[in-house]
C-alpha cells in the first residue's frame, strides 16, 4: 500500500504527502506513579498502572466530586477525541483514504475517459512516483467518484466497504483496528457524565457509519470535514446530493472552529495524536477551569506502528514539543497500554 | 419599529424585505376531535383539545409503544424545531436582527467614518425608505459591527442585550416571548425519549445564549446560520475571532443540509411556521417510518400577531399549501393554544 500514501485526500488538504516514515522515539509517559487511584484497573483494564492512567482517573475524580473547587457540572463535561491515530490506527494510510481510492477504482468502468488519465494509470499501476506527479489530477478523480450520488447511496457504499475491506498488513477489518484502551476510556468518561465527541479531519459520513456501534458515539456527536451537499427533490423524493466541493476542513486550526460551531462549549478533555490536533489541545488547555490534554504516542512497532516527528501520516512534532513544555499527558502505546486492539480482533 | 423591518440580516440573505404586513386567514387545525388522548391535558396543559394536540399525543404514543410496528428506538427520536415564529415571536422583526441593529448603533462612536454613511444615517433617522435604498451598505455596517471580536466577547454582548432589551410593543424581555405550549411540547417529547434540536435561520451564537435555560436545549443541539470564525493565539491565549464572512445559511433548502451535517439522522418530527421551513418539513415527511410534520399558523392578532401569505417576516404560503395537500398538522395559535406566553411574562 505504500504507493497509495503519496496521494491527497479530497477533503483534507493538509493530508498531502507520502506515507509514514517510522521513527522510534523514547516514550514520555508511562512512568509508574507512586500511587494508583482506586479501582483504575477495574474501569480501565487495558491501561497499565502509570502516570497516564493516574492523570485520567485523578481528573475524572476531580471534576465529578461535588462540592470540590474542581467540580464540573455534567453539561460542561465535554470530551473530544481525534479519530485517526487516536481511536483507531492510521497507517500506512488513513483508512478513509483507502476507501476513497477504492471508490475511484470501482468507478472506473463508468469513466472510459479515465483510460488515459495519468493519475488513474498511476493508481492502477501502483506507481507511487507517478501518483506524486499527478496529485491534483487524483483529487479530481476522487471528487468525481464520490459525488453526484445521494447521501444514502454514499452511506451504503461506506458500509459495504467497511464490511468487506481488510487492512493490507494486519489483515483485519478496519473496525477491528480500534484501540481497546480508548474504548474503555470512552465508556469510563460516559459513565462519569461526560459527553464524548469525535473531532476529526476525516469526513463525517465515513465515521458516522461505525462510530455509534464501535465507539458508542452517535452521529450527532461526530464532527469532521465535510463536502457540500445540496437539497433537491428527485422523483418527488427529498434528497441530499453530494457535490464535488469541499465544505469544511476540520483539521488543525479548523478543530477549535468545528468544536465551537458544533458544540458551542469549550471541552474539558481533549485527546489527539498528531500536529493536526495541536490547536484542539491548545483550545482545551486554554480552559480557565479543570482540563486534561492528552496525546497518543505511537511508539509500538511490535504491536502497532512506531512513528512521530518524521511521519507524513499522523506527524507528531510541534504538538509533542508543546505537550512536553506544558505538561500535557503523553500516552505511550508501548508502556501505557497492555492491549492495543479488542480481543475480537484476534489479539 | 416598522422602519427596521426593511433591512437585511447579515446572516440570512432570504430575510431581505420589509416588515410584516399582517393578514387574517382562517384557522386550519383546531377542530375538536371526537376522541381525546388520555392525559393530554396533563402533559400539554396549554394545548386545547383538538386535532393538533391529538395528532401529537397519538404520534408520541405510537413511536414509544414497544413491539408495535410504529415503534421508533430512542436514538432515532430526533425532533427539530424552527426558532423564530415557532418557539418564540418574530414580529415586527426577528429579534436577532434588532440586536444586530443595536450593535451597529452601539459601535457608531468607534466608527466616525459612518457619520456620512447613508445607511447609518437612515438607521439613525428611522428612515425606512432610505434604509431600503441602502440595504447592501447596511449589511456591511452589521458585518463590521459584529466582527473582529472574540466569540466570548460576542457572547457577552448578546447576553447583555437579552438581559436589558424589551420588545417594542409587547414591552417584555424577548426571552419571555417564547411560546408556553411549545415549552410543554419540548418537555413532553424529551420525557418520551426524544432528542430536541433547534434548526433555525438565525445564527447559532444568538440562540445558544438562551436556548438551554429557556428551552432546555443545550448548545450542541442548536443548529443555525453561522459566520466564519478563525482560530488564533492572541496574547498567548487560544482565541476564536469573528470574521465578516458568511459561513452557512441554515434556511430553506439549507435546513435539511444543516440537519444532515450536524445530526446525521433524519428527524421523525419537525415543527416550523414559514416557507423557510418547507424543506425541513419535506425532508422529515420523506421518512419511510413514522413521522410528524407541524406548522404554527399565526392567526391570533389579539394575543400575538396575525400574518401568513403576504408577510415579509415569517411568510407562510408554499409551506401552507403543501401542509394542506399532504395532511401536515397546521396548528392554529388562536384555536389550539389556550396560552401564548409563559405566565412569568405577566399573561
TrEMBL record, chains A, B:
Protein name (record): Putative nonspecific acid phosphatase NapD-like protein
InterPro entries, sorted: HAD-like_SerB, HAD-like_sf, HAD_sf
Alphabetically ordered keywords of this record: Plasmid, Signal
PROSITE patterns: PROKAR_LIPOPROTEIN
Presence of keyword Transport: no
Annotated Pfam families: HAD
Gene3D superfamilies attached to this UniProt entry: HAD superfamily/HAD-like
Signal sequence interval, chain numbering: 1-29
Domain of life per record: Bacteria
Amino acid at each position: 500500500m505504500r504507493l497509495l500514501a503519496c496521494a491527497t485526500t479530497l477533503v483534507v488538504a493538509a493530508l498531502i504527502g507520502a506515507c509514514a516514515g517510522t521513527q522510534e522515539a523514547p516514550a514520555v509517559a508511562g512512568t509508574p506513579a507512586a500511587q494508583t487511584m482506586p479501582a483504575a484497573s477495574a474501569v480501565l483494564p487495558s491501561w497499565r498502572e502509570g502516570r497516564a492512567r493516574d492523570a485520567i482517573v485523578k481528573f475524572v475524580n476531580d471534576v465529578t466530586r461535588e462540592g470540590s473547587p474542581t467540580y464540573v457540572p455534567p453539561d460542561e463535561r465535554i470530551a473530544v477525541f481525534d479519530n485517526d491515530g487516536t481511536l483507531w490506527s492510521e497507517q500506512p494510510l488513513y483508512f478513509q483514504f483507502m476507501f476513497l481510492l477504492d471508490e475511484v477504482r470501482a468507478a472506473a468502468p463508468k469513466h472510459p475517459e479515465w483510460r488515459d488519465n495519468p493519475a488513474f494509470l498511476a493508481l492502477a499501476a501502483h506507481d507511487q512516483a507517478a501518483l506524486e506527479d499527478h496529485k491534483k489530477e487524483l483529487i479530481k478523480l476522487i471528487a468525481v467518484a464520490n459525488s453526484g450520488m445521494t447521501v444514502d447511496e454514499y452511506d451504503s457504499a461506506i458500509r459495504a466497504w467497511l464490511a468487506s475491506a481488510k487492512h493490507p498488513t494486519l489483515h483485519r477489518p478496519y473496525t477491528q483496528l480500534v484501540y481497546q484502551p480508548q474504548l474503555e476510556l470512552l465508556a469510563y468518561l460516559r459513565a462519569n457524565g461526560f459527553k464524548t465527541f469525535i473531532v476529526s479531519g476525516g469526513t463525517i459520513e465515513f465515521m458516522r457509519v461505525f462510530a455509534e456501534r464501535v465507539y458508542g458515539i452517535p452521529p450527532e456527536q461526530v464532527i469532521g470535514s465535510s463536502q457540500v451537499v445540496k437539497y433537491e427533490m428527485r422523483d418527488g423524493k427529498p434528497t441530499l446530493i453530494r457535490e464535488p466541493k469541499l465544505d469544511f476542513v476540520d483539521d488543525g486550526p479548523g478543530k477549535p472552529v468545528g468544536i465551537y460551531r458544533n458544540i458551542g462549549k469549550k471541552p474539558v478533555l481533549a485527546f489527539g495524536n498528531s500536529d493536526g490536533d495541536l490547536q484542539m489541545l491548545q483550545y482545551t488547555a486554554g480552559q480557565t477551569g479543570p482540563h486534561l490534554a492528552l496525546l497518543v504516542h505511537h511508539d509500538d512497532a511490535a504491536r502497532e506502528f512506531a512513528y512521530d516527528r518524521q511521519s507524513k501520516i499522523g506527524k507528531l512534532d510541534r504538538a509533542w514539543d508543546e505537550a512536553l513544555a506544558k505538561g500535557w499527558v503523553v500516552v505511550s502505546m508501548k508502556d501505557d497500554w497492555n492491549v492495543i486492539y479488542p480481543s475480537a480482533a484476534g489479539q
